[in-house]
Amino acid sequence: METWGNWTFSNENEDLLAKVLNKFASDQCSLDTPKKVLLSSFAASSKTVQVEILSSSSDDSDIDGDFNAVQTYFPKLSTDISNGEPKSTTVVVEDLQLQSACTSVTLRNFNDESSFLPSQPQLEDPHENTIKKIVEILNAGDYDEEELFLVLQTELRNRKDVLEIIGDVWPEIVTDRARHGFCEALVKTDVRPQIICEHIYLPWFETRESNLTGFVESLSKLIVHFSEYACKFFLVKLLIDRESILVKHLNWLVNIMQSLDQQHWCILLNEYIHYCDGLDQYQIPVLLHLVNNCQQILNNGDAEHLIGLCRNAAYKHSTNRDFGLLLVSVIRAIDLNKFLPEMTTICEQLKGVSKFMIMKALKDTK
């Protein structure tokens, strides 16, 4: 064994160390570990690196594989020459600044976060956690309404975009009871009626047409909080579509409106009339329901518009019993003294049973 300063090398490892330094000095080694970076800096820090290899084998393929065998050894700090003759392997390293090299490597590697610093864990999205909490509460069945309200209120305050919250929560709700609970919580947090109707109840109606029991029950309970908007915009939209399931089941409309007074039925009638350019068959039962539930004399404007629709459709529906029933309801809901000439003209265009029904209604009302 020979001792150079504080480092000790065996003759056996000296050749391998020379190969390692030579390879690092020529940038032929992949610097994939901090220790290899350190040895590379040693080779680069010397003014002269001269390696003479007198060996029968020139195969360097084992250097990377045997790297761990010499990774704790460092080159000599001075040249060792015996009798002026080089050894079989001579390593000349001049002015190697070990401390400086170690310091520079340490600083460089601390700056290289990919080498030393552990990968930072991705932060969880607080909004995602809150949405999961809301969905879990709703789908739990017997949930705490106050807890749901507080969680939703906090999320609304933090995110300030209720449409994003609805978009995240609504597809995850699995029962009608949970859907109603979500609607109720939105109402309590003073979400605008337009948002509740257009982004909650309308999708609910469109996707659950085969079973609207939950929809009807929920809307009938909450409609009192946005009754005017529902009558002027939302329900009208559902009634003007001839394919709407609500048109086919008008008794559901009665259930939805059961908590509202006659004034709201008149508002709904007024809005519906203005959507009617003519009077198709599917519109006659709708108007009949609306007029019957008003149960009071229509204002002159609504009455005039409604009578105009009936007059224009009289010839088309002259033998239609449903049209005759609608006219009877109209006669009872208007100021007949003001509109008697118009109703008489309509009656003259009717035929069969409808004509006798109207004549009797006119006579009884006088």
Describe what you observe in this structure.
It contains 21 helices and four strands. With 366 residues, it is mostly helical. Strands 1-2 form a two-stranded antiparallel ribbon. A two-stranded antiparallel sheet has the order 3-4. A hairpin with a 2-residue loop joins strand 1 (2-4) and strand 2 (7-9). The radius of gyration is 45 Å and the shape is elongated. 29% of the residues are buried. Residues 1-5, 46-103 and 109-117 have low confidence and may be disordered.
Features:
366 residues, mainly alpha, two-stranded antiparallel ribbon, two-stranded antiparallel sheet, 21 helices, 64% helix, elongated, disordered N terminus
Could you give the topology of this structure?
Blueprint: E1 2-4, E2 7-9, H1 11-25, H2 34-45, E3 49-53, H3 62-65, H4 67-70, E4 89-93, H5 98-111, H6 113-116, H7 126-139, H8 145-159, H9 162-169, H10 176-188, H11 193-207, H12 213-222, H13 227-239, H14 245-248, H15 250-256, H16 262-275, H17 283-294, H18 300-313, H19 321-333, H20 336-349, H21 352-365
Antiparallel strand pairs: 1-2, 3-4
| Number of discrete helical segments | 21
Radius of gyration: 45 Å
Shape: elongated
Unreliable stretches covering 5 or more consecutive residues = 1-5, 46-103, 109-117
Query: What is the quaternary state of this protein?
Result: single chain
Give the distance, in angstroms, between the N- and C-terminal Cα atoms.
133 Å
The class by helix and strand makeup works out as mainly alpha
Largest sheet: 2 strands, antiparallel
Helix content: 55-70%
